[in-house]
Amino acid sequence: MTDLHIRYGTEVTDALRDGHPVVALESTIVSHGLPRPDNLRVARQIEQAVREAGAVPATIGMVAGELVVGLDDPRLTRLATVDGVAKLSVRDLAVAAATGADGATTVAATSAVAAAAGIGVFATGGLGGVHREAAQSFDESADLVTLARTPITVVCAGVKSILDVGATLERLETLGVGVIGYRTRRFPGFYLTDGGFDLDWSVDSPEQVADVLAAREQHGVHHGGLIVANPLPADEQLDPELHDRTLADGLARLERDGVTGKAVTPYLLAHFHSATEGASLAVNVRIILRNAELAARIAVAAAARRA
Ligand code: PSU
Ligand code: MN
């Protein structure tokens, strides 16, 4: 892990050296996914949720061209509050480093850096995926193809309903990315408990995920990603009727405003947060905190097996 040009937080260095559980966290949800000023508070809460479940949080991002695994509070604050933080996918990392940029890492970039750093578990809100109209626009998140080649377990609440959920699941199958439901056989739709599609596999405990990870090693089938899909309980989801209305309106505005490319996801998330008057924000925060806790429990179970 040390030959990469990465700054590690001290706690992260110690935990990796000692084989203690570590959970990677992304910074794009902080800088681009959640509105200010809540984003910084939530970023700290996510780290706290990981700690309370017994693991060390490693929030990943880039500050002044330096790639950091385990952002300290001043750096986390900077990414959450300054203007002009770039959204960094894998392909952007080197350019951002060479030009001294501030940047937040997406699921794709966070996965790649975490795996290179020797971190096996990562918590986020929702994965990027295939956008609606992708047949014309070719807009498919680099999260998918990156997970095809990156050995990391990603705990998420499925993909946002703003995407083409069915097409995303098909692409994950083609790319060889494992998908397991956590106590469910339905793929979650982020704000919604049920994204409308069945899953082949489900597990009931963090220990069972650790069993899967151990079997991947034993069988030599550990080169790609594994998604643990953790749905919100039905009574905590966004009201489906409010959701459908907000989504239809958001998609219409997207077209009206001509928003494309990497701006699409932040635009739609911001629309949800304002149009639902904070209801989607509360749901979003719940999702991330639940995923952080589950990821930490998985990291703890996996570390116990290795010990
Ligand atoms: N899901 C969320 N909030 C987010 C994102 C996903 O609930 O902010 C971010 C993640 O960082 C993800 C990225 O990797 O959006 C996907 O962007 P794109 O569709 O441009 O690949
Ligand atoms: Mn895209």
UniProtKB/TrEMBL annotation:
Keyword entries, A-Z: Glycosidase, Hydrolase, Lyase, Manganese, Metal-binding
PANTHER family recorded: CARBOHYDRATE KINASE PFKB DOMAIN-CONTAINING PROTEIN (PTHR42909:SF1), ZGC:136858 (PTHR42909)
Binding-site list for Mn(2+): D139
GO biological process: nucleobase catabolic process
Stored Gene3D superfamilies: Indigoidine synthase domain (3.40.1790.10)
Coiled-coil annotated residue ranges, if any: none
Catalytic activity, reaction form: D-ribose 5-phosphate + uracil = psi-UMP + H2O
Gene that this polypeptide is encoded by: psuG
Active-site residues annotated for this sequence: E26 (proton donor), K160 (nucleophile)
Family, as annotated: Belongs to the pseudouridine-5'-phosphate glycosidase family.
Native organism: Micromonospora deserti
Keyword Cell membrane: no
GO molecular function, one term: pseudouridylate synthase activity
Subunit record text: Homotrimer.
Role noted for this protein: Catalyzes the reversible cleavage of pseudouridine 5'-phosphate (PsiMP) to ribose 5-phosphate and uracil. Functions biologically in the cleavage direction, as part of a pseudouridine degradation pathway.
Protein name per Swiss-Prot or TrEMBL: Pseudouridine-5'-phosphate glycosidase
Top enzyme class: lyase
Cofactor(s) essential for the protein: Mn(2+)
Binding site for substrate: K87, V107, S141, A142, D143
EC number(s) on file: 4.2.1.70
One Pfam family this sequence matches: Indigoidine_A
